[in-house]
């Protein structure tokens, strides 16, 4: 038996070949160790390859007949459950859960199965994971499951998680808030759901307020919704040549003339602008005089 044959059989869904290889090996423990140790160039075992393809019969054979650990990890730390969920093979993921997979186990970048189910929008798997005790606020490099869902603009996942008590103001060092995620992916539906659930429109991410980012993105609908929800049009963030800017200046910088018009009535005048008008703000911001003063 060659090592490559094990991987080829698992990856190709060749259950007959796996049975044959097992039968040819008189020592079951030796065959088990082979299945655990033989890996491809990405550090995947036979079980991970089958999980990646969603081939349940192969997974069942390796777990129930060969006694492979359902939580065996790839070289970078992903379990078969995480591999299956990342590829959208939710029936395979449910099989692993039934067989006792650790649903709290995190893999690469701290991602759990709930993060992946939220990104993919699979409500059935999210429901199962929460029933089994998954942490709805599990953190990762990309934030909580709600942060992942919002940044991906997955409306159904955002609605599902909010209805089950997910924090709409989740803050993580390396990821943006759910509200900021909705703005960045231009999902007005997610933004409205988050605001209704109590998302704070004044929590900044990476030095920018939601209103400043909406002004840059050029969406008048987002600006109006944020202002109506209490976003501060006079908050300042550092963005332009280390100069503190108000949201209206972010709109001017981006050439968002409609945004400047929306923010103008609610923004306190800035003394350095010689002409505090909608046209004057845009013209002055890009003028040589303004650049020199900054």
Automatic annotation (TrEMBL):
ANK repeats lie at residues 76-108, 109-141, 141-173, 174-206, 206-238. It comes from the Eukaryota. Transmembrane segments: none annotated. The keyword Transferase does not apply. Gene3D superfamilies: Ankyrin repeat-containing domain. The keyword Ribonucleoprotein does not apply. Keywords: ANK repeat. Pfam families: Ank_2. This is Ankyrin repeat protein. It comes from Rehmannia glutinosa.
């Amino acid at each position: 038996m060659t090592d490559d044959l094990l991987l080829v059989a698992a990856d190709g869904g060749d259950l007959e070949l796996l049975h044959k290889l097992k039968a040819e090996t008189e020592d079951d423990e030796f065959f088990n160790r082979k299945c655990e140790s033989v890996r491809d160039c990405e550090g995947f075992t036979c079980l991970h390859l089958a999980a990646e393809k969603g081939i349940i019969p192969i997974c069942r054979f390796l777990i129930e007949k060969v006694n492979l650990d359902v939580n065996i990890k790839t070289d970078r730390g992903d379990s078969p459950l995480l591999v299956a969920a990342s590829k959208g093979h939710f029936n395979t993921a449910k099989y692993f859960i039934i067989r006792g997979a650790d649903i709290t186990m995190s893999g690469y970048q701290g991602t759990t199965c709930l993060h992946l189910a939220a990104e993919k929008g699979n409500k059935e798997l999210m429901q199962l994971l929460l029933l089994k005790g998954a942490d709805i606020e599990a953190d990762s490099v990309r934030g909580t499951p709600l942060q992942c869902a919002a940044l991906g603009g997955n409306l159904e996942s955002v609605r599902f998680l909010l209805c089950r008590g997910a924090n709409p103001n989740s803050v993580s060092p390396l990821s943006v808030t759910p509200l900021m995620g909705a703005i960045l992916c231009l999902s007005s539906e997610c933004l409205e759901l988050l605001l209704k659930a109590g998302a704070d429109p004044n929590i900044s991410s990476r030095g920018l307020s939601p209103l400043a980012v909406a002004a840059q993105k050029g969406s008048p609908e987002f600006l109006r919704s944020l202002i109506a929800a209490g976003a501060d049009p006079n908050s300042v963030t550092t963005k332009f040549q280390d100069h503190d800017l108000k949201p209206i200046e972010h709109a001017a910088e981006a050439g968002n003339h409609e945004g400047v018009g929306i923010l103008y009535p609610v923004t306190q005048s800035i003394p350095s602008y010689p002409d505090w008008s909608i046209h004057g703000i845009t013209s002055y911001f890009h003028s040589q005089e303004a650049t020199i003063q900054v």
